[in-house]
Q: What sequence folds into this?
C-alpha cells in the first residue's frame, strides 16, 4: 500500500500501526513533514503513558491496593489506554476509590466491561479494568458503598464522556474552517472544553449540548471562569433531538458506532451550507460518505477527522 496517500494514513491510525507506517514513510521521504510529526506524536504519547502508569502504580503501592497497570498495545491514539488488573475481587472497591480520588470518572455501559475514564487538560486517559466474571456489577456496588466520586451514565446516554484533548482543538478548528462568523454546536459536549476553546481561538459563538446534569454543571463552571463567557453557553438537552436551525458548524465526538448512527439524522436537520465534523479513533461505517477525511495530529494526540458539507 502506498504510504503517501491520505487513505493509507487513515488506515495506519485505525489499525494502530501509525508509528511503523511513519517510519517507512520517513525512510522513503526523509523530509516529509507528516511522517516527522507522526513520529514525534507517537513518542509523546508513549512518554505520557509511561508517566501515568508509573503514577498509578506508585499510588496503588502507597495505598496497598493490589492492582497492576500497563499501557495497552492499542494506546497510540488521542485516548491513551491503560489496562488495570486487580489481584482479586477484594481489590476492586479500593481501586475504584483510588481512581476517583485521582479524578477519574467511571461509567457502566452496554458497550463492554466496566471502565473508568478521565479527561484532563491536553491528555485523555482511559483505564480498562480487567477481571473475572461478575466484576461489572460488583465494582459499582463496592464503589458506591465506599461513597467514591464516580459518575454513572444512564442507559439513555448516547455514549460515555471522553473529552477531546485540548491539544487537538486547533487542528479541528482548521479542519472545520471555523471563523468568527460561525455558530458552532458541540453535541455531547461533556465539560464544554471544545466550546470554550473554539470561542477563544476563533471568536465564534458556541453552544454545548449535554444530557448528563453533572457534566453540565461542570461545563457551566468552566464557562463562568473563562474569558469567553459572553459567547459560550451550555444546555442540558438530548443531543439526538437538538434543534440545529441557525447552526453553521456541528461538532461530534462519540464512540465510532454511535457516531455513525447519529450522522444521517444530524445531516437531515442541518441548514443548507452547514458543516458537520466528527472525529474518531476507529473506523466509522459511513451511510453518508464524508466530503473529506483526514488524519489530524497534535503534540500528544492523534485522530481522524471527517467533514460533511452541504
A:
Amino acid at each position: 500500500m502506498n504510504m503517501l496517500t491520505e487513505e493509507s494514513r487513515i488506515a495506519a491510525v485505525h489499525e494502530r500501526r501509525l508509528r511503523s507506517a511513519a517510519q517507512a514513510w520517513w525512510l522513503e521521504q526523509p523530509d516529509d513533514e507528516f511522517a516527522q510529526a507522526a513520529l514525534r506524536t507517537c513518542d509523546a504519547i508513549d512518554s505520557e503513558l509511561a508517566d501515568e502508569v508509573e503514577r498509578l502504580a506508585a499510588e496503588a503501592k502507597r495505598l496497598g491496593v493490589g492492582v497492576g497497570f500497563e499501557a495497552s498495545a492499542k494506546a497510540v491514539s488521542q485516548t491513551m489506554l491503560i489496562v488495570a488488573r486487580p489481584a482479586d475481587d477484594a481489590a476492586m472497591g479500593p481501586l475504584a476509590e483510588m481512581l476517583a480520588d485521582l479524578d477519574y470518572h467511571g461509567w457502566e455501559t452496554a458497550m463492554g466491561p466496566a471502565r473508568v475514564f478521565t479527561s484532563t487538560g491536553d491528555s485523555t486517559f482511559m483505564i480498562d479494568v480487567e477481571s473475572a466474571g461478575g466484576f461489572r456489577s460488583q465494582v459499582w456496588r463496592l464503589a458506591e458503598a465506599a461513597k467514591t466520586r464516580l459518575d454513572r451514565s444512564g442507559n439513555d446516554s448516547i455514549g460515555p464522556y471522553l473529552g477531546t484533548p485540548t491539544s487537538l482543538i486547533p487542528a479541528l478548528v482548521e479542519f472545520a474552517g471555523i471563523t468568527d462568523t460561525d455558530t458552532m454546536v458541540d453535541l455531547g459536549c461533556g465539560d464544554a472544553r471544545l466550546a470554550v476553546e473554539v470561542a477563544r481561538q476563533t471568536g465564534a459563538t458556541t453552544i454545548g449540548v449535554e444530557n448528563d446534569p453533572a457534566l453540565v454543571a461542570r461545563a457551566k463552571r468552566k464557562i463562568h471562569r473563562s474569558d469567553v463567557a459572553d459567547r459560550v453557553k451550555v444546555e442540558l438537552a438530548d443531543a439526538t433531538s437538538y434543534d440545529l436551525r441557525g447552526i453553521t458548524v456541528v461538532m461530534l465526538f462519540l464512540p465510532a458506532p454511535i457516531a455513525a448512527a447519529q450522522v444521517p439524522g444530524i445531516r437531515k436537520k442541518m441548514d443548507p451550507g452547514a458543516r458537520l465534523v466528527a472525529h474518531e479513533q476507529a473506523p466509522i461505517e459511513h451511510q453518508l460518505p464524508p466530503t473529506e477525511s483526514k488524519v489530524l495530529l497534535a503534540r500528544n494526540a492523534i485522530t481522524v477527522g471527517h467533514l460533511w458539507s452541504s
Observations:
- The first strand starts at residue 67 and ends at 71.
- The radius of gyration is 20 Å.
- Residues 109-114, 132-156 have pLDDT under 50 and may be disordered.
- The CA atoms of residues 4 and 25 lie 7 Å apart.
